[in-house]
Amino acid sequence: NAGVTQTPKFQVLKTGQSMTLQCAQDMNHEYMSWYRQDPGMGLRLIHYSVGAGITDQGEVPNGYNVSRSTTEDFPLRLLSAAPSQTSVYFCASTQLETQYFGPGTRLLVL
Amino acid sequence: RKEVEQDPGPFNVPEGATVAFNCTYSNSASQSFFWYRQDCRKEPKLLMSVYSSGNEDGRFTAQLNRASQYISLLIRDSKLSDSATYLCVVNKKDSSYKLIFGSGTRLLVRP
Question: What values do phi and psi take at A66, rounded to 5?
Fold first, then answer.
């Protein structure tokens, strides 16, 4: 069991570039979510999904898109990167209120 | 006001010390409460859930005070390996799966 995996581990983007952060889980969990973590802010929910084909916005969704075509995968797309999106991004899957996090993606937008 | 507030610390304690963290939350309708642990540059991991009656897991004790809307975590006999950031987590009233994370309390245990 790999749990929750995320790629890439690190990424540097220029302002205006787009990219997709990948997230996959092999635990067959229906609920998945994306967070960003900034110093002094705690983790903030970007988007979440309660199952394949169903997604919804979290607390800070602007500038991000998600899709959920399978139970396993939940990619996060940055449409046009901005310096304010410099952060650490965590994907999580949930079972019985326990969230299992991936190792994170560190993103720097110049 | 933040929905979940924690003292950021750091708490710097010697090995063997007892240390306590508190956390307050603003949503009185919250039903589920947790402590997560996050090591430096790593992902958060569930440490323990917090129940109304209080609960203990080895050296760790969690308490919930619904009337005052605060949660506590007590660590006894601190180990060097306890050095980490401890995140207080509360669920949103409209979904048991949507969690609100505090910004964390940093603990440093010194030899």
Answer: -135, 165
Report CB contact under 8 Å: A97, B43.
no
Task: Show the tokens assigned to A50.
Answer: 């309660």
Tens digit of each residue's pLDDT (9 = 90 or more) over B19-52: 999 999 998 888 889 999 999 999 999 999 998 8
For A97, the closest of B2, B8, B97 (CB atoms) is: B97
Strands A98-101 and A105-109: unpaired
- For B94, the token pair is 């409209």
* Helix (H/G/I), strand (E/B), else coil: B107: strand
Contact assessment for residue B63 and residue B52, using Cβ atoms and an 8 Å cutoff: no
A75 vs A67: CA distance, rounded Å: 6
Q: Dihedral sign, CA of A76, A80, A81, A83?
A: negative
Please state, in angstroms and rounded to a whole number, the distance separating the CA atoms of residues A87 and B40.
Answer: 15
- Nearest in space to B73 (alpha carbons), one of B91, B90, B50, B92: B50
